[in-house]
Amino acid sequence: MTLEIIKNRRSIRKYKPTPVSDEQVKALLEAAMLAPSACNTRPWRFVVITNREKLDGLAELHPYAKMLKTAALCIAVIALPKTQERDDDLPQGFWPQDCGAATQNILLQAEAMGLGSCWCGLYPKDKTQSAVGNALSVPADEVPFCLIAIGEKDEDPKQRGFYDEERVAWVR
Hints:
Blueprint: H1 2-8, E1 15-16, H2 22-33, E2 44-49, H3 52-61, E3 73-79, H4 95-112, E4 116-121, H5 126-135, E5 143-153
Antiparallel strand pairs: 1-5, 2-3, 3-5, 4-5
């Protein structure tokens, strides 16, 4: 079943004007927070945006997030690098991978719930990060990692990913 969800997930850029319930949003966020992270530091927080004016504004700030104009909501993944600053230095610097795992969990949970989603990267693009960070009042010690558009799908794009045996090396 999980592989089918992975195979069916697409980046959706056109949405129907259907609201997403608070319960659905909570399930998406729970999936995100169940992602693995270095030494369980959980270097993330999330901003849920449902305000139409704010969604439209974010669509203007990010050159590849125009789909926010039709999405029901956006989840901004905000990285907390300081959570990985410890005396043992073990987890330091892994927050991009950790936030990526949380983001992927949201995308897969959305697909499992019949919702569409699209990952719009911010990190490491300083200009876009800064613009979105200012719009969402993100403190200077936090990093706007990505925006995720979410809503009811109004398109059915073809699958783009595939298994490619030529990219696999076996060490036995």
